[in-house]
Specification:
Elements lengths: L2 E10 L5 E11 L12 E4 L6 H8 L2 E7 L3 H6 L8 E3 L6 E3 L2 E13 L6 E11 L8 H13 L7 H18 L2 H18 L12
Helix pairs in contact: 3-4, 3-5
Amino acid sequence: MPLILETIVTTVSPEGALHLVPFGLIREDLGPEDLGPEDSGYVLAPFRPSPTIDNLEASPFFAASSPRDIRVIAGAVTGRRDWPTEPCATIPGRRLADSFGHAEFEVLAVTEDAQRPRYRGRIRHMSAHAPFIGYNRAQAAVLEAAVLSTRLHMLEPGKVLSELTYLAIAIAKTAGPREREAWGWIEDKVAGALGPEARILGREDR
């Protein structure tokens, strides 16, 4: 199985409109001697229909950023996509401003598919922007819950609630204010689809 990096991908429409979305960036060509990120191919595989596909067809460039604030991922899957961005260094477009780092890609090849085309990118530029001090379980829980919230049409309600109940343990034990706010957005989305029983944590626990 390939390594998949959870990032914020940004593309730009021909009219200059920015599209910001969480995306699993697929890293290929991993091997025993493959130690550097610049050594591998990276693939975006969005499902149709997608503004990302439309934008890449018009301009074959994208940026992938690692957000410092987990609310960016939770916000993007719950309709909150207005996050600060900055111009890219080497490609047309913009990247997430508040990030640990970002990479800029040029699409070199496209594997067409009626459902999920694959865009293979080459890194044109990489930058680090902030130190990384350590991992946080609540951030990981928000990430998993955000992915879960995009699959409500695919999963049984019992499965969703079971997963959220487990993930809520990390929120209760290790979350800061940002993580609790992000969790609340996701709970609101899931509760809107499945009912109030999807609110695993009460408002007083956020």
